Structure formats: C-alpha cells, structure tokens
C-alpha cells in the first residue's frame, strides 16, 4: 500500500507492505537505484546507512512494542531521504508512524516543532515519534519491574524466576534491535553535511539526543533486572538452604532412633523393656525423650 503525504514542499511516500510493482513505480518517480528497490522489498538483518549521489538510504530496526508485556521480534523501517522527498518502507503496522502521518495532515503542529526548513524534516519527525514511543515502552517495563519486586518480597520467589526471565528477554530484544542506532545516526550526520546543509546535522544531533534518552532508560532497566535477579536468587537459595537444614536435622534425629528400634527387634535372650508391662509406652516415652533431648541440643547450638 502506498500512502502519499505532503508537508510544505516535501513529499512523503509511505510504503506499507509494498508490492514489487509499487516499489518499482516509486523508484522510477524519484530516480532511486535498482539495488535499493530490492532492499525495500525484503527485510535486512542489520541497521545501516548509505550515501548516494542525491539521497541517503537508511535501514533501522525497532523492537516490537507491547506495553509492558513480553516483547519479541522487531520492526524494520527503510528511509530514503532526498531533496524535498522522503520514502519510508515497512512490513508491519507501527503506531508511531501511523500517528505521525496524522500529524502531517495538521501542518501547524509540525510548524511549532520545526521552525526552520530543512531537508529530511519529516524523517526527524518520524524518528522523534518512534523514540518517544520506545521511551514510553521502557516506562511500562519499569512498572513491570516494580510488580516483580513486589512479588519477590511477597515470598513468591519461584514465580518471579519466570517473570524476571520474560522481562530480561524483552530488554535483550530491545537492546539488540537498537544497538546500531548511535553509529547510524552519527554517520547520517556526516553524510547529511555533504549533500544537504548544517541544519540537517543539527537535527541529527537532536535525534541522537532522543536516542540517548532511550539508551539510558534501557540501561537503567537492564541494571534493575540484574539486581532483582540477584536478590531473588539469594532469597530463593536462602529459603532452600533453610529447608535442607531442617530436613537434615530431622533425618539426624530419627536416624539414631531408627537404629535403636532396629536393635530392639533382634531376637536375643535378653531384650530390655520388651515383655515388661506397658513396654510399648515405655519405648514411646524413651524415643520421645531422646528426640526432645536432641532437639534441645540443636536449638542450644543454634542449628535450628
């Protein structure tokens, strides 16, 4: 699907799930190299930026946003920034881009945001909206982490092992998707100065600042997950050690009692207590007293 927007004298062509024919028509209209047409149709593994004669080709990957739930996968968006035109190609619906397209229809909103004319101004607007949505998603994840922390100190350590793993997976996907953005934006600034003007480089720096906010929030969440995992593992290990200690002490108490009971079952001519009146109660009392004595010793030694 091809969506065409216009802001001042700049045309924005948004290709959403483009067909080969749609890509070919756009490439011919704006004189784009055929090798890029192939790139627009098929997904690319890594983010990168290329400088061409009259335009800049950029590939960026973004994590899938699910508002604080486990995030898997990533979106790819291809940008071609030229003189008075912008082409975007994507293979999924991205709320930030769809929302920005509505903003373009109300030019006054963009006029307040971008007071000066600049090549690629629509690109910078899209990038800002996407980074803003990523920052909000990291705030959702931060709230998710707060719930995990509550679960850890509510003695739900076992359940939190899975929850922490899901948060960690989402953050890992986040980091992998945006890992190359800083290098791409820096290269974009250098290329923009060569074929556009100083204003372009200025807006690249602003976009880089937006990315750094996302990166800082991401690193803070990653550090928080690491701390929560360590705390949860410590509490879980402590609880398991306490259980093992109790089981060991119980086993130690009952082992000598079992040994005595086994000895008393041996067929011999002389067996103390056996055969005496109320012998069963005497045996129970002896075992109970010995068990209580051992328990008192363990408490005195602070083994329990």
User: What's the number of helices?
Assistant: 9
Question: How are the strands of the largest sheet arranged?
Answer: 1-2-6-5-4-3
Integer tally of domains: 2
Q: Level of helix content?
A: 55-70%
Distance between the termini: 71 Å
Strand proportion, as a percent range, falls in 5-15%
How would you name the CATH homologous superfamily of the largest domain?
Answer: CorA soluble domain-like
**Which structural class matches the secondary elements?**
alpha+beta
Principal-axes geometry comes out as: rod-shaped
Radius of gyration: 34 Å
SSE order, one letter for each helix or strand: EEHHEEEEHHHHHHH
What do we call the CATH topology of the largest domain?
A: Beta Polymerase, domain 2
Total beta-strand segments:
6
List the main descriptive attributes of the protein structure presented here.
304 residues, alpha+beta, 2 domains, six-stranded mixed beta sheet, 9 helices, 6 strands, 13% strand
């Amino acid at each position: 699907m091809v969506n065409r927007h216009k802001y001042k004298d700049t045309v924005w062509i948004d290709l959403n799930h483009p067909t080969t024919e749609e890509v070919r028509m756009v490439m011919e209209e704006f004189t784009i190299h055929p090798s890029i047409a192939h790139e627009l149709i098929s997904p690319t593994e890594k983010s990168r930026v290329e400088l061409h004669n009259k335009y800049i080709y950029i590939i960026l990957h973004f994590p899938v946003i699910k508002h604080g739930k486990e995030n898997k996968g990533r979106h790819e968006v291809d940008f071609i920034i030229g003189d008075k035109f912008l082409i975007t190609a994507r293979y999924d619906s991205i709320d930030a881009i769809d929302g920005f397209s509505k903003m373009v229809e109300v030019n006054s909103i963009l006029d307040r945001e971008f007071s000066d004319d600049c090549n690629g101004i629509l690109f910078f607007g899209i990038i800002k909206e996407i980074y803003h949505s990523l920052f909000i998603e990291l705030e959702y994840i931060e709230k998710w982490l707060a719930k995990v922390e509550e679960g850890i100190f509510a003695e739900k350590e076992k359940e939190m092992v899975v929850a922490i793993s899901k948060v960690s997976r989402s953050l890992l996907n986040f980091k992998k998707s945006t890992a190359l953005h800083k290098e791409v934006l820096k290269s974009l600034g250098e290329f923009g100065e060569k074929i556009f003007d100083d204003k372009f480089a200025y807006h690249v720096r602003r976009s880089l600042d937006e990315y750094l906010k996302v990166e800082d929030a991401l690193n803070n969440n990653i550090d928080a997950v690491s701390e929560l995992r360590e705390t949860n593992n410590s509490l879980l290990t402590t609880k398991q050690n306490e259980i093992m200690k109790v089981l060991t002490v119980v086993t130690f108490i009952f082992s000598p009692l079992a040994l005595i009971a086994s000895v008393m079952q041996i067929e011999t001519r002389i067996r103390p207590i056996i055969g005496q009146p109320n012998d069963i109660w005497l045996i129970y009392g002896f075992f109970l007293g010995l068990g209580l004595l051992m328990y008192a010793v363990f408490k005195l030694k602070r083994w329990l």
